[in-house]
Amino acid sequence: MSWSISQIYNSWRNIHFLLKSAEIHGVMAIIEQLLYRTVHAVLWLYALVCTWLIGLRKPIQYNQRKRTLRRCQEDSSSLSKLPRHIGLAVLDGKISFPDVANIVVWCAAVGISYISVYDNEGLLKKNLLELTNHISEKEKELLGSERSKFTVEVCTETSESGQLTGNERRLSDGHNSSCSKRSKIQLYVIGPEDGQSSLARAAKQYCEMASHWRGKGTDEQEIDVNEMLHARYNFPDPDLILKFGTVSSLLGYLPWQIRLTEIISYPSHHSIDYKSFISLLHIFARTEQRFGK
To answer: Which pathway does the database say it acts in (predicted)?
Structure first.
């Protein structure tokens, strides 16, 4: 088959156009990567500046006062509002169990009733015994004899039904307890599988219920997905999440429960001190939550 000059020329033009398009696409990909890295650098710098400002605003008296349960309660009384449920998203690499235990004990001491701790690799759940031992040690170290004035119950998912039951420990006296009983402090240890699997389980349950109604020929009833998810997690939605790490994501922390949650970032949980913790609570207290208004 012979090719005319015009056909050869047109083929060359098409090939040239494709090469130019691929070149432009490659340039655009490079530009997108540069923009992506620039945004992350700006966010990292923002977090660094915020940390510096928090350090400047730390009240000096916190350094000079001995931390006791009474002192912690006095510090919390100076806040205009206190989160009922605080989430700790530990996303800054290697986990320091003593530092996480410190934050948990401070939360309990200032009067926060529900605490959830999360890491995107599930190491806190896998090393639950180590975490509870550190919390118990920090209670003795920071609060002394006053630790008997409150209890911390630790809950994690152990049952096949997906309920957050079992594996509970009452740290103040060492006796077994139940998370269903009313206690002053409840600590929930969660991992990445809790967020995704809970939504998948709720979706499966919804489909099964809808199929059941269709099979019986009855009208479908209204299903409250929010109620289904809260039946599994026996705690209120978090009012505040302290995100430790420079990544601009919660990396799987319970996605359904954080619609109205205030999120405050801090570069690292490593070596965080009580002054910084209280300063973060002051930031939350000054926050005006409009709830979509």
So the answer is: Protein modification; protein glycosylation
Q: Which amino acid is at 151?
A: T
Other Cβ atoms closer than 10 A to 104: 26
**Distance between CA atoms of 88 and 151, rounded to whole angstroms?**
19
Residue 1 has pLDDT above 80, yes or no: no
Collect all residues with Cβ–Cβ distance below 8 Å to 159 and sequence separation of at least 6: 165, 166
- Residue 234 to residue 219: CA distance in whole angstroms: 30
For 257-291, write each residue's pLDDT tens digit.
Answer: 888 899 999 999 999 999 999 999 999 999 887 76
CB 241 within 8 A of CB 261: yes
SS3 category, 245: coil
The Cα 129–Cα 132 span in angstroms is 5
**Could you tell me which of 142, 97, 131 has the C-alpha nearest to residue 274?**
142
Contact 271, 99 (CB under 8 A): yes
Q: Report whether 143 contacts 182 (CB < 8 A).
A: no
pLDDT of res. 265: 92
User: What is the C-alpha to C-alpha distance for residues 229 and 238, in angstroms, rounded to an integer?
Assistant: 14
DSSP 8-state class, residue 272: -
Query: Can you say how many angstroms the Cα of residue 53 is from the centroid of all Cα atoms in its chain?
Result: 23
CA distance 180 to 124: 22
Cα–Cα distance for residue pair 186/234, rounded to 1 Å: 10
Q: Give CA 6 to chain center in angstroms.
A: 64
* 161-209 pLDDT per residue, tens: 444 444 445 554 444 444 444 446 899 999 988 877 777 777 787 787 7
